[in-house]
Amino acid sequence: MAFFTHQICRGFSSSAVRNVVIKHVTIIGGGQMGAGIAQVAASTGHSVTLVDTNDDILKKSVKGIEGSLKRVVKKKYADKPEAGEEFIQKVLQNVSTSTDAGSAAQSSDLVLEAIVENLKIKQDLFGRLDKLAPPHTIFASNTSSLPISDIASSTNRLDRFGGLHFFNPVPMMKLVEVIGTSATSQDTFDSLLNFSKMLGKTPVSCKDTPGFIVNRLLVPYIMEAIRLYERGHGSKEDIDIAMKLGAGYPMGPFELSDYVGLDTMKFIMDGWSAKDPHNPLFAPSELLNKLVAEGKYGKKTGEGFYKYK
């Protein structure tokens, strides 16, 4: 039934989005993810408007982009410093900033949010922008755990709504998960796939299911490692070493948890557990909950499963 509905919705999708080439992008959220996406889009010739709540945040975002570009130039233009400086200035010229999301959306082919993982806040944002953005504008969320269909429900452009899940750090990570809901039109989905390729990324097609592909496999794996440790069946150090040397992973599950953020891990698991409380893969961890309650989120707070100086 879902497949049938999907085809019907695609058949009646708005012709306004057909053959749209995404040139101007509005990115809502100037944090690490938003700034990273802005950098990559600007580096590939897109006109980018980066939006956040105040100018101080945006200045910090642009400074972070410039610092990241300098690191790129140091490797890519090692023997051509003038060409490297020219590249940096060209990319930065493609980035403008604004504290007015509504105004920015009015001239955008794509509006992509990378804000806090809060469903209501995302719904309120898109509900407001839906009234201001042109009919052809595609909306997308960078959420890693919330259903795209739930976020899109606050708008009247369900056929022009999808997910673009980037990975951190965005300039380095090649993958983008492109998510379509049962109402996303084929034209919209193709536009998002093509946009991802234009960024130099490798897109994979995903359904609107919990965690999409990567997190749906990765998070339960990490949680099972935590449960293994809780049962006393291995130390966290040995589990990390085992997965790095035995499975060839660059980081063990506890190292990765600290890098991702234990608060983020808990948020994802709590959401999945609420949706499917009888799934043993989504069972909570007492240890994880305890560390989060103590404010030990991982590298960003100086302590998680490990301590950091």
From TrEMBL:
Pathway: Lipid metabolism; fatty acid beta-oxidation. Its EC number is 1.1.1.35. CoA binds at S68, K75, S144. Residues 211-308 form the 3-hydroxyacyl-CoA dehydrogenase C-terminal domain. Pfam families: 3HCDH, 3HCDH_N. PROSITE patterns: 3HCDH. NAD(+) binds at G29, G30, G31, Q32, M33, G34, D52, E117, K122, S144, N168, K300. GO terms for biological process: cell differentiation; fatty acid beta-oxidation; spermatogenesis. Residues 24-209 form the 3-hydroxyacyl-CoA dehydrogenase NAD binding domain. One of its GO terms (molecular function) is NAD+ binding. GO terms for cellular component: mitochondrial matrix. Mitochondrial fatty acid beta-oxidation enzyme that catalyzes the third step of the beta-oxidation cycle for medium and short-chain 3-hydroxy fatty acyl-CoAs (C4 to C10). Plays a role in the control of insulin secretion by inhibiting the activation of glutamate dehydrogenase 1 (GLUD1), an enzyme that has an important role in regulating amino acid-induced insulin secretion. Plays a role in the maintenance of normal spermatogenesis through the reduction of fatty acid accumulation in the testes. PANTHER family: HYDROXYACYL-COENZYME A DEHYDROGENASE, MITOCHONDRIAL, PTHR43561. This is Hydroxyacyl-coenzyme A dehydrogenase, mitochondrial. It comes from Seriola lalandi dorsalis. The lineage of its organism: Eukaryota, Metazoa, Chordata, Craniata, Vertebrata.
